[in-house]
Amino acid sequence: KQEVTQIPAALSVPEGENLVLNCSFTDSAIYNLQWFRQDPGKGLTSLLLIQSSQREQTSGRLNASLDKSSGRSTLYIAASQPGDSATYLCAVRMFSGGYNKLIFGAGTRLAVHP
Amino acid sequence: ETGVTQTPRHLVMGMTNKKSLKCEQHLGHNAMYWYKQSAKKPLELMFVYNFKEQTENNSVPSRFSPECPNSSHLFLHLHTLQPEDSALYLCASSQDSRTWENQPQHFGDGTRLSIL
Q1: Cis peptide before B83 (omega within 30 of 0)
Q2: CA distance readout (Å), B113 to A74, A87, B80, B95, B106
């Protein structure tokens, strides 16, 4: 059974710091890995999607890496801003029972203070 | 505007009430999903519909009853709920849940459900 773990569960940093969020998964038979952002009381917004054959994806100040064989992904946020405060969720896509599924971690709650 | 609209945004109900959650997507997708998000726990997939057909029931108690009248609308009918059912219920859609191609799921903002 696939399990997705995110470390740390919560993180508080001053504005301007570079930071790394970690995601690990137990079954490497994934099709892709996706990082989402969730603001309080809101749904999920997709940030980056890494195909299983890729090593990393970049979007602005965000960089996500994937090491499928070791079951790990990191989300790097450069020059953090208060607007980056949110919960960041990692999810892996697997094919199971004839359908593909997203399996989520519990998230990292990030607070960036001025 | 995410393309996936959920109503109501908040719902408070007693354990004996019957209510329904509604999800509508304007993205032309064929697959729709219900997820449950409890505090400090990962999102849990509840149901999947593909082309109006239920393809997955992730061992969800029968007090939750989904309905998908067409590819654009998804309902979750609730009856005789328990306090532990209090959570954020998220709806999502994607092009086709069976395809092997990489495609994102688009999420609504959820319904915050509180059971008294």
Answers
A1: no
A2: 32, 20, 13, 27, 21
What are the chain B neighbours of A102 within 8 Å (beta carbons)? Answer: 43, 45, 105
Single out the residue of B92, B86, B82 nearest to residue B29, CA to CA: B92
Q: Which of A57, A66, A92, A100 to mutate to probe the B interface, most B CBs <10 Å?
A: A100
Return the pLDDT at A6.
96
Query: Strand A10-14 and strand A108-113: pairing?
Result: parallel
Tell me: the pLDDT tens digits for A19-38?
Answer: 999 999 999 999 899 999 99
Residues of chain B with pLDDT under 50: none
Of the residues B35, B107, B112, B113, the best mutation for testing chain A's interface (the one with the most A CB atoms within 10 Å of its CB) is: B107
Partner residue facing A43 (CB), from B45, B99, B109? B109
Sign for the pseudo-dihedral over CA of A104, B2, A53, A78? negative
